[in-house]
Specification:
Strands 9, 10, 12, 14, 15 and 17 form a six-stranded mixed β-sheet that branches. Strand 6 and strand 7 form a beta hairpin. This protein has 486 residues and is mostly beta strands.
Length: 486
């Protein structure tokens, strides 16, 4: 009998410790252009089970593998690629819990280096209670997603105000991890807990507290991630026009014979800007640097008569000389987000060219320059000029223009001779009569992708230093813009 019991114990132990389940490795890229030749592999107890995995775009790109409980999982970088600092990996166990938090992979082999962790198949442990508050949001009342913070730590909690009883919300964190929702106070009754994204139902109307951790054992990390709240059961309102109540930026509309367009820098979606100098019967085009934005143009007051509404670029013709108010939202449901976009207005006239936009995009081994015109009159050609110091310029390519057009036209030119510096570009336009105009410059950072502040300006457009207070606009060397309040 004793031998039989021992045999059963051994059999049970063998079954318990050899239990296997699917694990998942996720790959992400901080820049969003994939791993550029970088790759990682996965081994279990020294045997490679996944080889040379890469990442597409921002990711996550996921792969699965089997591992027995307690076995050693090792994730190691096999190829560094062009930008190893942008590579990130994350490993989930069989229950979907994070067991290797989002981290830059280290070089290694199947038996050494890299990152190691014990395989597991256990479910969630939680819930968690953090004691540090950071950022807050009002629960959305439409089926939209609201960004709570772009620098949320997985050791903090965020109050969510005005949750409505019976509505279903979804809390999410872009780096994954474990979420706990509590009611009443930060350490109050648990409403729900689980891996990100987490759906939960609001039991009573009021404020709720969302805690973020790296895993179901309430691990913490102090690197920035983005936290979100979405209403999954809210009814969609009727599409725009929109009325925002927050004013930001003033500008004069472009005039005949003047500059081609005027711009308000770093307007948020959910704000309106004020534009004076409208000329009745004159066609204009309003656009933003976010292609999917929804634009509402109103006349007289911020909540006045609607002149035009629709996706940018938006054409409109005012019927009087009133001041105009341009409202920008993320979509036709009047969505909002605290992220910069430049809002520009072009005047349609007999000028040689009405430029809508001039932008650039970094490729793996080149830069592509894009520009669009709303109209052209007796134009001849364009020349893209380049500089590495913003002072001396050389032409790198010529593109023939349409000559005459009243429709939106798109152009592009690729610069295949890119140095690992900050490259500046400007657009030089010539018309048939020899008259020329210059647009830009724009900057593309082709260095080791370290985003450095090029300058700071205030709302008056004056350059200020890092000690300035108030609303400050930071312009980075790669052309990106950030608005801060100091």
């Amino acid at each position: 009998m004793k031998n039989i019991l021992i045999g059963l114990f051994v059999l049970f132990s063998t079954f318990t410790f050899s239990q296997s389940c699917l694990h998942t490795i996720q790959r992400t890229d901080t820049w969003g252009d994939g791993w550029n030749g970088g790759a990682v592999s996965v081994s279990v107890n020294g045997v490679t089970v996944l080889s040379n995995l890469s990442c597409v775009g921002y990711g996550p790109t996921s792969s699965t593998f089997m591992a027995a409980v307690g076995s050693t999982i090792r994730v190691f970088r096999t190829f560094a690629g062009s930008y190893p600092s942008e590579m990130r990996i994350r490993v989930l166990n069989g229950a979907g819990a994070t067991i290797i938090n989002t981290i830059q992979p280290l070089a290694g082999t199947a038996t050494s280096g890299g990152h190691t962790v014990a395989a597991s198949c256990a479910g969630a442990v939680g819930p968690c209670t953090n004691t540090t508050p950071y950022a807050s949001a009002t629960a959305p009342s439409t089926p939209t997603t609201v960004i709570i913070s772009t620098c949320q730590f997985q050791s903090e909690y965020s109050p969510i105000y005005s949750c409505i009883a019976g509505r279903t919300y979804q809390s999410a964190y872009n780096l994954g991890g474990f979420i706990t929702v509590r009611s009443g106070t930060y350490n109050g009754t648990v409403v729900a807990s689980g891996n990100s994204p987490l759906s939960w139902v609001c039991p009573t109307s009021g404020t709720y507290f969302v805690h973020y951790n790296t895993n179901n054992t309430c691990g913490t990390a102090t690197n920035c991630g983005t936290s979100y709240i979405t209403c999954l059961s809210c009814a969609a309102p009727s599409p725009g026009p929109c009325i925002n109540t927050i004013a930001y930026g003033t500008q004069n509309l472009p005039v005949f014979g003047g500059i081609s367009y005027t711009t308000v820098v770093c307007q948020f979606a959910g704000e309106y800007s004020t534009w004076s100098g409208a000329v009745a019967g004159t066609p204009y085009i309003a656009m933003t640097t976010v292609a999917t934005d929804w634009v509402t143009v109103r006349s007289g007051t911020y909540n006045g008569a609607v002149v035009a509404v629709g996706l940018a670029p938006l054409s409109f013709t005012p019927s009087n000389n009133n001041t105009l108010y341009i409202h920008v939202n993320t979509n036709s449901l009047c969505g909002t987000v605290n992220a910069c976009r430049n809002v520009s207005v072009t005047r349609m006239s007999a000028l040689p060219i009405e430029l809508i936009s001039f932008t650039g995009k970094k490729q793996t081994n080149s830069n592509i320059l894009y520009w669009s015109t709303a109209s052209e009159y007796n134009t001849s050609h364009f020349i893209i000029e380049k500089s590495d110091d913003g002072v001396e310029w050389i032409g790198i390519g010529q593109v023939q223009s349409a000559g005459n057009s009243t429709q939106k036209l798109d152009y592009s030119l690729e610069d295949k001779d890119v140095s690992q510096v900050i490259n500046y570009y400007r657009l030089h336009q010539y018309d048939i009569d020899g008259v020329d105009d210059i647009f830009g410059p724009i900057a593309i950072n082709n260095r080791d992708r370290i985003n450095i502040i090029a300058k700071r300006i205030n709302l008056a457009g004056q350059e200020v230093n890092e000690n300035a207070t108030g609303i400050i606009i930071e312009i980075y060397e790669d052309g990106s813009i950030k608005r801060i309040i100091k």
